[in-house]
Prior knowledge:
Layout: H1 22-32, H2 57-69
Amino acid sequence: xxxxxxxxxxxxxxxxxxxxxxxxxxxxxxxxxxxxxxxxxxxxxxxxxxxxxxxxxxxxxxxxxxxxxx
Length: 70
């Protein structure tokens, strides 16, 4: 049986999540050194999610360098 096209998952439409799971937040706090073993897993402090943007600046600089070199 085939899958209807409207039910397929497209990776292009995937967005970055804005909410972390509890274990992801604990791991992030451990990396930052803000977690101790005696802390409760309930009521964790907020953690900021860093959004990574594509590096288009290098391509633009390369084109500018090529134009200046000609």
